[in-house]
Amino acid sequence: MLLYDIDMHDFRIAKDPRFDRLPCIHKGTYADDCIVDRVTQMWPDLIRKAKDGDLNGIQTYVFWNGHEPVQGQYYFEDMYDLVKFIKLVQKDGLYVNLRIGPYVCAEWNFGGFHVCLKYVPGISFRTDNEPFK
Known about the structure:
This protein is α/β, with parallel strands linked by helices. 18% of the residues lie in helices and 17% in strands. It has helices at 43-52, 64-67, 82-91; strands at 2-5, 10-13, 31-33, 57-62, 95-100. Belongs to the glycosyl hydrolase 35 family.
């Protein structure tokens, strides 16, 4: 889990047993989940409510298939404007936990994987097979 401390302008890595070689600086994060791509107009209100509810962070997915709608063409505007979202969270002094895919589930089309992957010969998703690596 990668956290960005807005006030201290540094990154912190929360311990995950799968990555035991990473440094761990853990302050304790009480985050709420906000799927930013679904509620753009509600961002400020949801962030304030999270803070009022004594949470110190907002967690959200980064949707590959939204940020790269066509292979090689990137999009970070409107509901995919992560910088705008992070700045709004920063304004209220909260942490941001970006859940970077590629797989995100979240009842999202194709799990957030880019649709071009479906045409890769021999691919088996979320496995250790060569085409998926």
